[in-house]
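User: Before I run my own analysis I want an independent prediction to cross-check against. Here's the chain; please return only the structure tokens and, at the end, one sentence I can use as a sanity check.
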Amino acid sequence: MSPKNGTNETGVLALTLVITLGLVGGVFWWLANNSGLSNNIIPNQSRPKQDTLTQKINVPSGLFSYGGSTTWAPIRKEVEPEIQKLWPNFQLRYTDPTTGAPGSTPGIKMLLDNQLAFSQSSRSLKDDEYQKAQQRGFQLKEIPVAIDGIAIAVHPSLQIPGLTLAQLKDIYTGKLTNWQQVNGPNLPITPYSRRLEEGGTIEFFDQNIMGGEKFAANVKFIPTTTQALREVANNPGGIYYGSAPEVVGQCSVKPLPLGRKSDQFIPPYKEPFVPLQNCPQQRNKINVVSFQTGEYPITRRLFVIIKQNGQSDQQAGEAYANWLLTAQGQQLIAKAGFVRIR
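Assistant: Structure tokens:
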């Protein structure tokens, strides 16, 4: 064999090897993409990245109605688009009650009446709601997914260091009627509230601050938090309570520190306080640490309320709640202004 012939044969063998490897690689690529061997070939923009917990969630297909707490609105805004990306066949539709304002209590009632697959609540379930579910042949379950606080909104011009829980109660029961009585200016107090039957925030306030005592005759009832905050912004003597994410970042009202005692005032916002004239370029943010530790005196949990009936409604509620407890879900809860529970 001449050197020239040896060189040619080596080149042919090398070319044959390259072609063979290319064919084998092509076959493997085709099998991986058509037989489920790889779930990560599709680019991120087509298939959102899923953590391990997300992959284990049993998600039903179909259109599921849910409703309830208005406090949840910022969470819904962040969460729904991501769920639709992850599971396009798991379609969610927020549903208002046919009469009255939306809220935790109306949402639970709609769930009991089989108008919703699951509901969202800013308060825990009541005994009579558990009993009504049993009468209808199923159980109710609440799953906590976030921490919230009740923040007090006042007019930006009001200069007081804070309020104790006892003083707050006395304002809403009518025992305190002038800001001068709590080291403020000689100015009548105008307390605002939503009605008791309209939401979990009001029921929580009623149980934990009012202690079941009736609201005073001077309390002005407003249908929504947006309207109430507008009233406070226009009334130097106004005061309102609401979910902390709805109050703390506002540009037109001031969140007030609260305390169990007058020497223990804790702000619902992260210090230092951002002057309202800097808003909206800079906004006050939730005092996450004091909410997590319970140092801030009015905190609560937010719940997904699930109907345990062994049907797709239960599966939908559990999938929704379980995903909110994943790393991605908790991150979105924090982005919405609430405090992670995990």
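Sanity check: The first helix runs from residue 3 to 34.
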